[in-house]
Design brief:
- The structure is a single chain.
- The chain is of the alpha/beta class.
- The chain has a domain of 378 residues.
- Helix content is 33%, strand content 22%.
- The chain has 19 helices and 24 strands.
- Strands 1, 2, 3, 4, 5, 19, 20, 21 and 22 form a nine-stranded mixed beta sheet that branches. It has an eight-stranded parallel beta sheet with strand order 6-7-8-9-10-11-14-18.
- Helix 6 packs across helix 18 and helix 13 runs antiparallel to helix 17.
- The longest helix is centred in the last third of the chain and has 17 residues.
- The two termini are 40 Å apart.
């Protein structure tokens, strides 16, 4: 298909274009310099941006299905019958696979990464990813509590750890290294947790500090496209900002394989807590933002809270148990052998709660205090802080100090006393919104063809019915929220898939994965260890563990090469 998007206000930070009225040409699924005989779409008085890139969202896998099973009440909140082009769907904080694709597409998103892929659950997760329409997808492979990773690192065998990590990525068709409460989820299997970077993991002579440092070194040796994607220790604990700062200091010891960040602090809001009890719970966003501003090796995503009820889920099993013990709500936990221990529990963020009010402020503070919008990304840690459907509301808060102040005045007084949000005048521009939802996540993931509208980029485009010459986002946040809630057009791979907020064409996106390789001799050595571990400890046969070859021959799978430098 050939298309020309005419006369839109184009925002493309990666190419230095900010609100210029210009045409975008599309041919054969790519952005091109010019095209003849194309269908024209009039974008006059509208904002044109690259398709959104979601870097962290729990949209597929075992935890998501556990949440769906344990929360039938959640399904009734967002039910829609079959449409002309869509299937029947349901779910709010735990939406069905098809609703996930439709809803992201209506928001103008064209790419999404599921946040945590336990290797043992890879086959099932990829089945769900393939089920999600409209989006290109990928998965972050969990390694922070893996027995063989911890064994190799504790023994100082970094080359073997690299080889094993490369094999795990290939076996799972994963895209990046993810670490969740390093060492803590393994300790949870023995009824324990780790509370500092120097606590020792039971039955493994290793600490969280050594695991994190080791994974960063592995990542750089393999020259993977994304940095280590880290959920630090002590998530959700009062005063955890000190653990977070100590963790960020570890990046200073890493030798980057190229000019880029070496660590992403994910859902940073949940790791930026001050105080020493829930009675004096406070924001430490200033300290975390200062650390990010002072280092070119760090990026973060927000993990923003939005008021309402949702479902929390994470590979941090001890944290979910702790949360359930605070609320008394139902809870599920699962030990995934040799790999991780996730948990699931519902949660309600109430505007009357002093804790929830402070949490809401912290996420916004982080986005507003990190100076470079290419170093921060919009997320809610879907669905932990809120469902991703709430992104338009968060965008309106970032663009309007007035709207933030209105919310702040209606919250418990602790949200005003124990945060600095009320003193922050900064208001995001449309260009900065484009950074945190498109350019920054695409750059962080190393996706050269996404997050921009330059020649050769994927023809993934979002058009919003918002005239920047007529609408002042600072004074009219409702107009911003309305525009970002449903695109005028979403274009995926050069095809119009959403028009005026309605799905007009359903497409099958691609799955992105990394093909990481090391030397053949080293691979043979680690495979002997893998074979031994499977025969002795796993309840599945090694042959049934990797994602099957038939998946790799799919035209919808796209390989990204990486290897030892």
């Amino acid at each position: 298909m050939k298309l020309v998007l005419k006369n839109g206000y184009v925002y493309d930070p990666a190419n230095g274009i900010e609100g210029e009225k210009m045409d975008i040409f599309i041919e054969d699924g790519r952005i091109v310099e010019e095209v003849k005989g194309a269908k024209e779409i009039d974008c006059s008085g509208m904002v044109v941006m690259p398709g959104g890139v979601e870097i962290h969202s729990h949209i597929a896998g075992g935890k998501v299905n556990t949440a769906r099973l344990m929360r039938p009440e959640d399904h009734l909140r967002n039910v829609a019958p079959r449409g002309r082009n869509t299937r029947s769907v349901c779910g709010y904080s735990t939406p069905s696979t098809f609703l996930t694709g439709y809803a992201y597409s209506r928001l103008g998103y064209t790419t999404a990464f599921t946040a945590a892929l336990p290797p043992l659950m890879a086959r099932h997760t990829h089945e769900e990813l393939h089920d999600i329409p409209m989006l290109d997808k990928g998965a972050l492979t969990v390694m922070g509590n893996n027995w063989l990773i911890m064994r190799y690192l504790s023994e100082g065998r970094i080359e073997h750890a690299c080889a094993y990590a490369a094999w795990l990525l290939r076996a799972t068709r994963g895209y990046a290294i993810k670490a969740v409460n390093p060492g803590g989820s393994e300790a949870w299997g023995w009824g324990r947790d780790v509370r500092s970077l120097d606590d020792r993991v039971p039955h493994f002579d290793i600490t969280p500090r050594e695991i994190i440092a080791g994974l960063m070194e592995i990542n750089e040796r393999l020259s993977l496209p994304h940095s280590v994607h880290l959920h630090p220790n002590n998530l959700g604990r009062v005063g955890n900002f000190s653990t977070t700062l100590e963790t960020l200091e570890l990046t200073k010891e890493v030798k980057p394989s190229r000019e880029r960040q070496v660590l992403q602090l994910t859902h940073a809001q949940f790791h930026s807590y001050g105080g020493d009890s829930w009675k004096n719970f406070s924001s430490a966003a200033e300290e975390i933002a200062k650390a990010v501003n002072s280092s070119d090796r760090l990026v973060l995503d927000m993990g923003q809270v939005v008021f309402g009820d949702t479902t929390t889920m994470t590979a941090d099993g001890p944290m979910e148990y702790y949360l359930s013990s605070l609320t008394g709500l139902k809870w599920a936990n699962k030990d995934i052998e040799l790999e991780t221990a996730p948990g699931v529990t519902p949660f309600v963020y109430s505007e009357k709660s002093p804790v929830a009010g402070v949490q809401w402020a912290i996420g916004l503070e982080l986005a507003l205090l990190v100076e470079d919008p290419m170093r921060v990304m919009l997320t809610t840690d879907h669905p932990n802080g809120a469902p991703f459907f709430t992104y338009p509301k968060i965008i309106s808060w970032l663009m309007s100090a007035k709207s933030r102040e209105q919310v702040l005045q209606g919250l418990h007084s602790a949200a005003q006393k124990n945060t600095v949000l009320g003193s922050i005048d900064r208001e995001y521009s449309l260009q900065e919104i484009c950074c945190i939802t498109r350019a920054a996540p695409a750059k962080s993931l190393g996706l050269d063809s996404k997050g921009h509208l330059g020649v050769g980029a994927d023809a993934d485009v979002a058009v919003y019915a918002l005239d920047p010459e007529k609408v002042d986002p600072a004074r009219e946040p409702e107009a911003v929220e309305r525009a970002f809630s449903a695109t005028a057009y979403t274009i995926k791979g050069g095809e119009v898939v959403v028009r005026d907020g309605e799905i007009v064409r359903v497409v099958t996106g691609r799955t992105l994965y990394v093909e990481a390789k090391v030397g053949e001799e080293l691979e043979r050595e680690i495979m002997r260890d893998v074979d031994y571990y499977f025969k002795r400890f796993y309840s599945v046969n090694l042959a049934n563990y990797p994602v099957q070859d038939v998946y790799l021959t799919s035209p919808h799978a796209v390989k990204v090469d990486a290897g030892v430098r």
